[in-house]
Amino acid sequence: MAFFRSLQDSAFTEWFLGSASIWTYPTVLTLHTVGMAILVGASFVIHLRVLQVARDVPLRRLLPLYRFIWIGFAINLLSGLILFVTEAADRIADPVFYVKMASIAAALWLGVIVKRRTIDRPGAPDVTTGLSRSMAAASLALWTIAIVAGRLMAYLKSAA
Amino acid sequence: MLEFAAWVESTQISKTLFGMSWLWPACESLHFIGLCMLIGGAGLLDLRLMGMFRGVPIRHVKAMMPWAIGGFLINAGTGALFLTMQPHLYLSSAVWWSKVAFIVVAAANALFFETRLAPSALSMDDNADTSLVMKVVGACSLVSWFAVLYCGRMLPYLGTGN
Amino acid sequence: MKTSSRVGLAVLGLALASVSVAAHHSFAMFEMDKNVEYQGVVSEWKWQNPHVHFTVDIKPAPGIDPQTVGRWDVEGGSVNIMSRQGWTRTSYKVGDPIRLVGHPMKDGSKGISLFYSIRPDGTRLYHDIARPKDDVKKTSGVLP
Description:
The structure holds three protein chains of three kinds. Chain A is mainly α. Chain A has one domain (2-155). Chain A has helices at 2-8, 11-18, 25-50, 65-86, 88-92, 95-117, 130-155. In chain B, helix 7 (94-123) runs antiparallel to helix 8 (132-154). By secondary structure, chain B is mainly α. Chain C has helices at residues 2-21, 79-84; strands spanning 36-46, 53-58, 70-75, 97-104, 111-118, 124-126. In chain C, strands 1-2-3-5-4 form a five-stranded mixed β-barrel. The longest helix of chain C is centred in the first third of the chain and has 20 residues, at 2-21. Chains in contact: A-B, A-C, B-C. The interface between A and C is medium-sized, with 32 and 27 residues.
């Protein structure tokens, strides 16, 4: 706990949150939104296809979208880490933070499994199975929960 | 503008909506979800127009568009609610009007595609490279929607409204 | 159909979000068309994004509205916009007297959404991105 408190009370935090420049807090926050749009947007398209939307598009052809998933994730991991440092102690004690992190981890994990069961299997038919579809739907639901949890965190900022 | 905003905020509908304290945060969440649907769905078509996924017929990719439009409608709806509840936050903000301008650009670009480019796009050889005009239209769409995102997210931090 | 379970989960998530939010500060919880003046001493000062936040201690005294006595949480705007409105990190510090006008919480708890502060020379420091320079005509609790 003391470690997280020291992060939140650090000189970096005071500088970063107190800076009137748009290149600090506002830019990091906006990058986090951009990363979300890319990450969840790409996941959304892939999972929709697994759920048989636009089924004329061979699922395998959507492979390049995974590049965007990882780009979006990288942007948000980095921007998220910076934001986390500035609120480390509050977040560690916040159950909603854990909901968000768990949802993201689960959504990504399900996404990887779906990929392995479909795109990655040589000779696998393009029509997806019920299990893959359930996982895709669950992944989308988890992204939704992650987004809602992220928004909720903004309202649960400790007043201290 | 400010007088108009003050008038809107004095109406019963505005007060009732804003009085439901859960509504604003719920609209924000929905607005984020809508933008992911929009940028994901439209982004796929835009990338195809820009030459990615060569070999996949454009008309097949377009089948994702109803979901992108759904995302847009979610955001138009939640946006209308924000405007009804707290218009003073937006109507006097140059950043917000910039956001509106970029939405208009994105919409005009989409309309241009639908009316002028769609016939040739939908019937072109799937393995051919897309034309320069198609690439520009695709890029313009992506850039515009990200500009909309930028303006929206930066609203509490840019400008002064004065 | 799987889409419906996805929608159901999303709705559940939003419902959970709404319930929790009701217990905490959202600016939808302030009476935005009520302007009240407060005079006290700054007891906490947080010049930080996304919201500048400070607390004001108000003690009973002649001329002080008894309903304003206590410790109040004051919520401002972003550091960026407040800076452009004339605020600085050192506009106030702990121990400084402060006069401000703001919107109290609907539920009566001691929270204020900042409208403007009144400097010793009488000038106003606004914080919002689009506030009129004059008071909105619906006012209550303003002391002479």
